[in-house]
Amino acid sequence: MTSILVPRRQATTGLLAAAITPGVAPVQDLAPIMLPAPRADFGCSLAQALKQRRSQREFAPRPLPPQVLSELLWSAYGVNRPATQDRTAPSWRHARETEIYAVMAEAAWRYDPIAHRLMPHLVGDFRAQTGVRDFVATAPLTLVYVSDASHMAGVSPEEQRRVGAADVGFIGQNVYLYCASEGLACVFRASLDAERLAHTLKLAESRFIGFAQTVGYPKG
Length: 220
Ligand SMILES: Cc1cc2nc3c(=O)[nH]c(=O)nc-3n(C[C@H](O)[C@H](O)[C@H](O)COP(=O)(O)O)c2cc1C
Hints:
By secondary structure, the protein is α+β, with helices and mostly antiparallel strands. It has one domain (about 35-215): NADH Oxidase. It has helices at about 45-50, 65-75, 135-140, 155-180, 195-200; strands at about 35, 80, 85, 100-105, 105-110, 115-125, 140-150, 185-190, 205-215. The strands form two sheets. Strands 1-6-5-4-7-9-8 form a seven-stranded antiparallel β-sheet, with helices on both faces. The chain has a two-stranded antiparallel ribbon with strand order 2-3. Helix 1 (about 45-50) crosses helix 4 (about 155-180). It starts with about 30 loop residues before the first strand and ends with a strand. Flavin mononucleotide binds near residues 55, 190 and 191. Flavin mononucleotide binds next to strand 8.
């Protein structure tokens, strides 16, 4: 398996570099992963993607290449109007409160849509803790959808949960359509221990987890 971990003292672009041992290296030793630009045109037609969209729960362990990771995250929640930094998914009152954590074999990363990069968050393999089914431990990627309540000031916690869930739902459908259009498998999931996972990922107090989405190549 090719490592995507890049020691900070090495390249800050590109994904090929010497590996850092998971669980040993401090996160500050990791450089951000600068994702390649999404291709100008990718995927199949919208009609085809809608026809093919479905949930799949069996994944090959092979990691996603950088170009796929780039286009997946851009489709999910990337900037589609650079002048205003607006996104491919809508958000309640333009709050843009959702953060996407990409949990992969060697580390958990936070997607930075503005710079289109993955910021190192925690070194280690936390995939098994993103859900309750066995497949989450071996699928190459789980996107953990985190809502930052500090972007939703002035409304009740119940309302924050309600609108947070709606906003994440749009992102989840973007991911479903990208996966359908590129032959990837994915499943949007409520089945996770949100409190425990937030603790594991050392999320700040204002942040809560609603859902996750596991992505990979279909098995077989
Ligand atoms: C809000 C929500 C939560 C879901 N949670 C889970 C889950 O925890 N585990 C799972 O395997 N599928 C989960 N799913 C996927 C559904 O089971 C799936 O969409 C449904 O069975 C219909 O299948 P389809 O997506 O292939 O059309 C969830 C879907 C939604 C929209």
